[in-house]
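2024-03-11 09:14:02 DEBUG pipeline.ingest accepted 1 chain
2024-03-11 09:14:02 DEBUG pipeline.ingest length=506
2024-03-11 09:14:03 DEBUG pipeline.predict start
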Amino acid sequence: MKLYRNLCFYCFVFVATKNFGQSITLHEQFNGRFDYTAIGNTLNINENGAFFNCDILTGSAAELSMSTNQNIIAAYLYWAGSGTGDFEVTLNNISITSDRTFGYSLDSDRQFFAAFSDITALVQNQGNGLYLLDNLEQIDTSQNYCSTGTNFAGWALVVIYEDLSLPLNQINIYDGLETVPDAITINLDNLNVLDVEGAKIGFIAWEGDVSLSVNESLRMNGYLLSNPPLNPSTNAFNGTNSFTGVSGMHNMDIDVYDIHNTISIGDTTATIELTSGQDLVMVNSIITVLNSQLPDATIEFTSEAETNCFSRTIALEYTISNFNATDQLPAETPIAFYIEDLLIAQSVVGQIVPIGEYITSSIEIEIDQNINELFEITAVVDDIGNGSGIVSEISESNNTNEITVELSNDGCPIFIPQGLSPNGDGLNDIFDIQGVYDVFINHKLLIYNRYGSLIFEGDNNIKWDGNSNRGTNSSPRKLPVGTYFYVLFLNETDYKPKTGWVYLNY
């Protein structure tokens, strides 16, 4: 882990020659024995274009068919079309309102939209079967769109599922609304390819035309991708669904490509290039599936810091978790504790933390006298004490946790004895004020005789043993048996001086 480093695993960075609607960014990440499938359908009656009927349906259907061993983890609905947008639809007669929206303006006369909704509960409840998206009504098929072949509408359902027979994978779902032509370059950074088997990348794209294939290509690390016969290398966006084998999905694509030959074990970066010399294509979502056996360490303080009066020693309890992981967190993973940028303590994870599990631990830390009484401690797991880690993780941005600590004097007990007998027997040889020494380190003790003369002055290092160190003869001398008056200044906020009588005897 790198302290103060904020990176997402498998981040996409985009460079393009055209203005975008919204940049495609990471939306959700899943780690485990996961994979995904996708269904959907167009609402176009036929391919858009000046020589075709521009009418668009308000609904269409597609069938979800999953195996019994595939457990639905998440389900995301995307829909899109020409115009400023319709963000309320129905799915199997259930009203769906968009959680997020995207927009793109080709020019002043042609706008496009896309929408997203998390419908996990709905799909988990209904399972396999026919899904009818309907009431997508506010689609612009006016002359501005119809005459230029840019009128379209469609929908897609992405389903993430768990299958215990699968390897441990990481699925990243990125979305936004980016456009091609002419080109988009996508840089995948911070990869940790452990196994290329089953590696793939998928796209949800809108407005692609099967009849337009001028300089249309999809490359990864320079390798031309294709999925024949559905997706030839020269026409990536041609109205198909790679999962169902369906073609003729006018002006939309649900495509997935095998990329195991384009990456290698040990790769840390990859590059995707999308080009189109004529066809306008709007990429709405990009999904990667890569084998990823990595832990994901997090740390969390589980209770308030325990302090003892003015003691500078504090006790901290915390948990080390490995929840969003595809591999166990090794023992001896380092832990560092900071006050601001100052390293104040170190520890290690005491045992292996399995996937989805956590362990509890504690530490005592001595706080330097130069630190104020109110401060914040930052704990960082996978940190050797200089901001660097030793464990590759799924996420390097969730390794810290903070807690506020106040060294308070509230409730510090003080016991003042009524006498002392400094005769060398080891019992009551000093005026032992319990709860003061090494707690109220700035205290001052004054002892007066019965005539009101100051005969002793002490502090945290000088304790009264029946001798005087003040008065006409400041040299230490044994005081006579009798009653003496004391004044104890604790010199701490909210503590008043304490006064009383103490009897000296031998």
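2024-03-11 09:14:41 DEBUG pipeline.report The longest strand covers residues 71-82.
2024-03-11 09:14:41 DEBUG pipeline.predict end
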